[in-house]
Amino acid sequence: MATAGGGCVADPGSRSLLRLLSFCVLLAGLCEGNSVERKIYIPLNKTAPCVRLLNATHQIGCQSSISGDTGVIHVVEKEEDLQWVLTDGPNPPYVVLLEGTLFTRDVMEKLKGRSGRIAGLAVSLAKPSPASGFSPSVQCPNDGFGVYSNSYGSQFAHCRAFQWNKVGDGLAYEDFSFPIFLLEDENETNVIKQCYRDHNLSPNGSAPAFPLCAMQLFSHMHAVVSTVTCMRRSLIQSSFSISPEIVCDPLSDYNVWSLLKPINTSGTLEPDDRVVVAATRLDSRSFFWNVAPGAESAVASFVTQLAAAEALQKAPDAATLPRNVMFVFFQGETFDYIGSSRMVYDMENGKFPVQLENIDSFVELGQVALRNSLELWMHTDPMSQKNETVLNQVEVLLSTLEQSGAGVPTVVLRRLNQSQPLPPSSLQRFLRARNVSGVVLADHSDSFHNLYYQSIYDTAENINVTYPAGQSPEEDLNFVTDTAKALAGVATVLARALYRLAGGASFNDTIQADPHTVTRLLYGFLVRANNSWFQSILRPDLRSYLGDGPLQHYIAVSSPTNATYVVQYALANLTGKVIDLTREQCQDPSQVPTENKDLYEYTWVQGPLNANETDRLPRCVRSTARLARALSPAFELKQWGSTEYSTWTESRWKDIRARIFLIASKELEAEFGSMAELLDVAGKGLNQLSVEANLQEWRLKPAFSPHCWPRACLQRA
Predict the structure, then answer these.
(1) Is residue 570 a contact partner of residue 529, using CB atoms and an 8 Å limit?
(2) Residue scoring higher pLDDT (676 or 192)
(3) Where are the alpha helices (H) located in 181-336, listed in sequence order?
(4) What three-state secondary structure class fits 60?
(5) For residue 579, what are the β-bridge partners?
(6) In what order do the strands lie in the sheet with 657-663?
(7) What is the pLDDT of residue 243?
(8) What is the pLDDT of residue 579?
(9) pLDDT 10s digits, 216-269
(10) Where's the Nicastrin small lobe domain (predicted)?
(11) Which of its termini does the chain have fewer beta carbons within 10 Å around, N or C?
(12) Contact indicator for 136, 172 with CB cutoff of 8 Å
């Protein structure tokens, strides 16, 4: 009979009949595998969750209850729509489908304050990107883990001079008690909205009648409180259980590094060996797990450094320069300098071939793709320059950069006031250990130009990487964009400066970065990883790492990540040499008297397609491109509460998935719940199609816990 609220309930006789019919339908599901489930649920296959991260003192991120959270869907397209879910709606809890432009700290604070009425959140992508910017990062990135503190440059500590990331609202560093998912596919978003319009909208603001369109989100996290707590629990489990349940893992991956001239990596350099370091970062992040396009915050800079490495390697006298050059691509810098702090730690403890005393100078690329009026700003540390020796060395460094840029009309080098601090940078971690003469090159003089720092919108479009309509993927791969030309200019300046700093003089003006290299790298990292060039430079067993979309640059816990491998092999391809070895010899160069694995890395790669484009021409590439562990020293030292080193961990989970369905009524849902759960257990035992979610490919695990009638009821007549 009808209720006062405009919904409906079934009379006792109807409930008995429904219960009997439902039991028969559910029992039939045991024999028919997942066929009943497929008629009941629509799985959302293109989603990304917010997960829980932890450090020494806090937990951040999101999670669902252990059995998932279910709510009636309500679409919020403008802020006024929030009133229904916060106060007026008669059928809480709700799962809010939030338009991307409303995914702000102000809106989230309102939803967070009414968690009893909010079961979860599904966020759609804003198209175009929010014009005012969106950065869920903090305004002072890596605060407390750089060089500035109350005892060193206290006037610069905690970004007292100014906030580097002015648009940062810190949303990604909040803790939410309900699940939040990103809807990555517009078609799936439209399906949800259609279900909402068909079943949850009612005229004149009256309560809608059952059945209602609902969403269920699963993202229960195992770790709680802090890294100290979760690592202690994991350690206890590992010590006393034969099948320990680890609840969190340290964020970790590998740094990529190479040398202009090979060195024996089984030992360390002599104290008087001098090395010029060229550094940049590999990683980024966003609010959502493994969605980290990082176009301006990471990709543009490491692509520029790759092009500079190629250009420098081609200098005729590169092998005879007085000083060596080391190219380093740091992982995990987003999370309190994981990669750079680990390299400094290894250098200090004799675990890396290059030692701190070997560093002659340090040139780092920050964000470089959004320059105004061709300007590239040279940032230095005012505190270390109080030492006259360092001051003079920095002056030489800046003058060398200016001389190197004089012949590149697309780049104008600018100095900054010596009283201005360094932006967030890997150089800061080296300065904590030693007074190094260093500079950070960036497109900004003070606050970031990047309005989408560490967000889902820091994409190819953010740095103006676009292609003419109607081109094939192969044509896009080789189309030289304006951004590629601009970054090639920066790469040329960097390569020429490194050449001079290494003691070169004869061929400075002939060193030129290749815009075609830059454009192919940008396309591969930001648009389509599965392209002919990336396929040709990878090992055969890594070809599946390349998907049809862009690579993501979240450090994660399983390593090396796809992006790390691609950077390593791109560096090897651009700076190494193809040598005449068989596959067996390449994989075991000790068989060849003239080769030395302590000096070089050897990689058997797929190679380019032959003339008929039917088979590949595999080959052996010899290079100095290597990997070095990027795991915070805090975990090696078991100092999980460290304030010196990064302590970030990622919680483990068992199930990440999302789906929509029709909910008949709260009463029927409660009556059918235990029966559905029983069938869920039995169905999983009989049906081998129910497997654990493959998060790398985002295929969702089928589950059986029906709340309503077949899927056909979601489709419009």
Answers:
(1) no
(2) 192
(3) 186-199, 227-240, 300-313
(4) strand
(5) 620
(6) 42-43, 657-663, 212-218, 69-76, 94-98, 118-124, 180-183, 47-49
(7) 80
(8) 97
(9) 999 999 999 999 999 999 999 888 878 889 999 999 999 999 999 999 999 999
(10) 49-223
(11) C
(12) yes
| Cα gap 119→113, rounded to integer Å | 12
- 253-527 adopts what CATH topology? Aminopeptidase (3.40.630)
Q: Two tokens at 53?
A: 């991260």
Q: How far is CA 409 from CA 243, 488, 490, 535, in A?
A: 63, 12, 10, 34
Eight-state DSSP code of residue 702: P
CB 315 within 8 A of CB 504: yes
Residue from 632, 549, 510, 580 nearest 255 by CA = 632
**Torsional sign, CA 113, 118, 120, 124:** negative
The full DSSP string for 61-90 is B----TT-EEEEEEEESSGGGHHIIIII-S
- The enclosing H or E element of 23 equals helix 12-31
Instruction: For residues 608-619, give the mean pLDDT.
Output: 88
Element (H, E) at 214: strand 212-218
Beta bridge partners of 660: 42, 215
Q: Residue 250, preceding bond cis, omega within 30 degrees?
A: no
Q: For residue 131, what are the CA distances in angstroms to 100, 101, 127?
A: 12, 9, 10
Place of tokens 């319009």: 197
Contact 282, 500 (CB under 8 A): no
From residue 629, give the alpha-carbon distance in Å to each of 136, 525, 545, 559, 625.
Answer: 28, 22, 20, 10, 14
Q: What is the mean pLDDT of residues 536-546?
A: 95
Best-predicted range by mean pLDDT (36-45, 524-533, 549-558): 524-533
Please, which contacts does 23-26 make with residues 24 or more away whose CB atoms are closer than 8 Å? 23/675, 26/675, 26/676, 26/679, 26/706
Domain map (residue ranges) of the chain: 37-133+168-220+655-666, 253-527
Tell me the pLDDT band of 22, cut-offs 50, 70 and 90: low
Per DSSP, helices labelled H in 576-617 are 583-587
**Distance (Å, whole) CA 310 – CA 315:** 9
| Predicted pLDDT at 688 | 33
Closest to 655 (Cα-Cα) out of 620, 709, 702, 597:
702
Residue 672 pLDDT greater than 50, yes or no: no
- d(C-alpha 200, C-alpha 218), whole Å: 22
Contacts of 417 by beta carbon, 8 Å cutoff, 6+ apart: none
Integer CA distances (angstroms), 327 to 275, 277, 373, 627, 642, in order: 10, 6, 28, 12, 29
- Which 3 state secondary structure label does DSSP give 691? coil
Collapsing DSSP states into helix, strand and coil, what is residue 250?
strand
Tokens of residue 603, six digits: 């990689």
pLDDT at 686: 36
Polymer length in residues for the chain:
717
State how beta strands 53-54 and 649-651 pair: antiparallel
Amino acid at 134: F
Average pLDDT of 276-303?
98
CA 556 to chain centre: 8
Band (pLDDT 50/70/90 cuts) for residue 103 is: very high
